[in-house]
Amino acid sequence: MPHRPPSTVPRFARLLATGAGAALLFTTAITGPPASAMPAAAPATAPVRPMMAPQVPNGGPDRDFDGDGVADVLAIGGTGELLLYRGTEAGPLRAGTRVGNGWANFDLVFAVGDFSGDGRPDVMARDLGGDLFLYRGDGNGGWLGGGRVGYGWQGFTAILGAGDFNGDGTSDVIGRDASGRLLLYPGNGAGGWLPPTQIGSGWGRLKFLSAAGDMDFDGAADVLAVAYGEVEGPAPGCGSGADLLLYSGSGRGGFARSGAIGSGWCPFNTVMGGGDRVLITRDASGTLLRYVRTGPASWASPVVVGTGWSNLRIVT
Ligand SMILES: [Ca+2]
Ligand SMILES: [Ca+2]
Ligand SMILES: [Ca+2]
After folding, report:
1. Which tens digits make up the pLDDT trace of 2-50?
2. How do residues 145-179 score in pLDDT, each as one tens digit?
3. For the stretch 234-248, what's the b/e string if a residue is b when 16 or more beta carbons lie within 10 angstroms of its beta carbon?
4. Which DSSP category does 31 fall into?
5. Is the peptide bond before 267 cis (omega within 30 degrees of 0)?
6. How many Å lie between the centroid of ligand 3 and the Cα of residue 249?
7. Are 149 and 31 in contact (CB under 8 A)?
8. Could you give the CA distance from residue 138 to residue 141 in angstroms, rounded to a whole number?
9. C-alpha span between 159 and 109 (Å, rounded)
10. Fewest CB within 10 angstroms: 29, 73, 132, 157, which?
């Protein structure tokens, strides 16, 4: 029910999904191949100008795409349509509405917060050739346009919007490369990049890297991941633990400490940030659950916010 696209197509529906014909809106901000040229890959000439609207302090990437004050969820349907599921304060997501077409060519799409600096949350998407595109949200559930903001990103096994991980007021991106290194690509607040830095190694076995802001209430944005237990057998499995690990950000672009804040996350095939101190999970039956962190060591009871999501690709 919730994932069936509507018969009518809202405005801004025809969203150009490939680089061909798309205006390169941020030509001064395109990065080089991130792995081979780090940290020199970042453009030295990227202009830095003040934010037009402040990032939510220490929040995860802003996911309120329609501007009603509640985080939303985006997903890609079977024919490449982009669907917006508006969030509600305490209950399930509203039915999806189509807000774009042609998203099937992207193998990774994620919420990045306000990367362009206009105060409205944006989305990034990587295509099969490794190009990274920024789609600027209009704050009303639609899009202002898109442009390429990087290339050479095909080597990353995970990319996520990290909120303001380095504490300078701009939305940042974290990527994990094939060797398990974690790299921070700070946004410059104007749709471009500041020089990347390596912030971790040995992350190759972790799953569901996510960001939901400051999960331990120390004032700095954090990163979450699930660690499957060791399992004997032909293929690595979930094992008994499936701990949810919290990597506490230092607030300056690094990590201060880490530890498990949950266990038994095995049933989920998706774990992602869902707003400030919110995680959303999907299980094998396609049920979405919302987990809200209510204190340094406490969760609210999870709430079902959607069903029938098995065949959707969720925008993380
Ligand atoms: Ca919303
Ligand atoms: Ca930042
Ligand atoms: Ca924190």
Report:
1. 333 322 222 222 233 333 333 333 333 333 333 322 322 333 233 333 3
2. 999 999 999 999 999 999 999 999 999 999 999 99
3. eeeebeebbbbbbbb
4. B
5. no
6. 5
7. yes
8. 7
9. 9
10. 157
pTM of the model: 0.82
Rounded distance between C-alpha atoms, residue 272 and residue 290, angstroms:
10
Lowest mean pLDDT among 38-47, 69-78, 93-102, 228-237: 38-47
Rounded Cα–Cα distance for residues 154 and 202 (Å): 19
Query: Could you give the CA distance from residue 250 to residue 245 in angstroms, rounded to a whole number?
Result: 16
User: Residue type for 219, please?
Assistant: G
Q: How close is the Cα of 141 to the center of ligand 1, in Å? A: 8
Whole-number Å distance, alpha carbon 126 to ligand 1 midpoint, is 24
* Radius of gyration (C-alpha) of the chain in whole angstroms: 18
Give the pLDDT confidence score for residue 86 in this predicted structure. 98
CB count within 10 Å of CB 208 equals: 23
In this structure, what token pair is assigned to residue 158? 């995970």
Distance of CA 136 from the midpoint of ligand 2 (Å): 17
Three-state SS letters, 107-142: EEEEEEECCCCCCCCEEEEEECCCCEEEEEECCCCC
Classified as helix, coil or strand, 4 is coil
Ligand 3 centre and the CA of 216: distance in Å? 5
Q: How far apart are alpha carbons 190 and 53 in whole angstroms?
A: 11
- The three-state secondary structure class of 220 is coil
